[in-house]
């Protein structure tokens, strides 16, 4: 999702993945059954681990639930969040209501690193059935993964993005990657964009070995208010800026909103777990 292609060292061919997502060789009916089972199983696991076995607090969940319930079918949804642990997705969704968490039709599509989640065919099928999309970091905003996300947004679906582009283990400031800017700018219907900040996920699944899931940890999730892009998008289109400038401006607005949400969430985390 960054500008400019780079070489990848992966020898595993993923040429079959996007044709399979668009037209499963087993047939769409069997694929949807397998996907429903995968989504429900992972959702149940996330709910148990996050909601029951750890000390999780979720702020503003009801507002987000209303968006999931009342969003018009033709209006797409994009969620963006910080990325501090390999369990952020599906872990974040463990605080959702059951009806949202277990529904294959409405649960998010999520970008996932190809060199971590799609290293062999077995892993690839598991993540594809769980509605994950292999993104090749460094291959730019016009790669297959971003194109596929734009297609899903055109259908009014939900896409989740970690715009930092990697697990930010040091929690440093990282300029957000512009792929999400392209998704918003190229969507024929302006998406609802909801920022999410979370604290404590790296305590549940540490970033250093041994990679063992933990219980009893303090976690906070904060669902922000939707980001209003109507004014900015009109300004960019009226000015007829080039696509790169538009992506940059949109992504910078998301960065500002996420940083504001970070400050709020840090205060909530201290309040909830003091």
TrEMBL record:
Keywords assigned by UniProt, alphabetized: Acyltransferase, Lipid metabolism, Membrane, Mitochondrion, Mitochondrion inner membrane, Mitochondrion outer membrane, Transferase, Transmembrane, Transmembrane helix
Reactions it catalyzes: 1'-[1,2-diacyl-sn-glycero-3-phospho],3'-[1-acyl-sn-glycero-3-phospho]-glycerol + a 1,2-diacyl-sn-glycero-3-phosphocholine = a cardiolipin + a 1-acyl-sn-glycero-3-phosphocholine; 1,2-di-(9Z-octadecenoyl)-sn-glycero-3-phosphocholine + 1-hexadecanoyl-sn-glycero-3-phosphocholine = 1-hexadecanoyl-2-(9Z-octadecenoyl)-sn-glycero-3-phosphocholine + 1-(9Z-octadecenoyl)-sn-glycero-3-phosphocholine
Bilayer disposition of the protein: Peripheral membrane protein
GO molecular function, one term: acyltransferase activity
Localization, UniProt: Mitochondrion inner membrane; Mitochondrion outer membrane
Major place of residence: mitochondrion
Membrane spanning stretches: 28-53
Domain (Phospholipid/glycerol acyltransferase) ranges: 77-201
SMART domains according to UniProt: PlsC
Entry's family note: Belongs to the taffazin family.
Protein name in UniProt: Tafazzin family protein
The organism of origin for this protein: Nesidiocoris tenuis
Lineage: Eukaryota, Metazoa, Ecdysozoa, Arthropoda, Hexapoda
């Amino acid at each position: 999702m960054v500008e400019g292609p780079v070489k990848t060292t992966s020898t595993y061919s993923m040429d079959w993945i996007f044709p399979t997502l668009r037209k499963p060789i087993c047939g769409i009916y069997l694929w949807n059954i397998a996907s429903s089972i995968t989504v429900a199983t992972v959702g149940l696991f996330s709910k148990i681990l996050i909601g029951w076995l750890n000390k999780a607090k979720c702020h503003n969940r009801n507002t987000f639930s209303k968006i999931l319930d009342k969003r018009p079918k033709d209006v797409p949804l994009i969620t963006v969040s910080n990325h501090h642990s390999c369990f952020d997705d599906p872990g974040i969704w463990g605080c959702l209501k059951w009806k949202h968490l277990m529904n294959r039709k409405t649960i998010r599509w999520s970008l996932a690193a190809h060199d971590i989640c799609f290293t062999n065919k077995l892993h690839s099928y598991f993540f594809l059935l769980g509605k994950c999309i292999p993104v090749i970091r460094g291959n730019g905003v016009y790669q297959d993964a971003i194109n596929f996300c734009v297609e899903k947004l055109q259908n009014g679906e939900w896409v989740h993005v970690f715009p930092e582009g990697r697990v930010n283990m040091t929690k440093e400031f990282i300029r957000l990657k512009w792929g999400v800017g392209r998704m918003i700018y190229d969507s024929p219907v302006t998406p609802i964009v909801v920022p999410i900040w979370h604290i404590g996920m790296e305590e549940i699944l540490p970033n250093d070995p041994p990679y063992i899931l933990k219980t009893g940890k303090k976690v906070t999730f904060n669902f922000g208010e939707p980001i209003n892009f109507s004014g900015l998008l009109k300004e960019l289109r009226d000015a007829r800026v080039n696509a790169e400038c538009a992506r940059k401006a949109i992504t910078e607005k998301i960065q500002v909103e996420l940083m504001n949400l970070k400050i709020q969430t840090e205060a909530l985390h201290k309040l909830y777990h003091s």
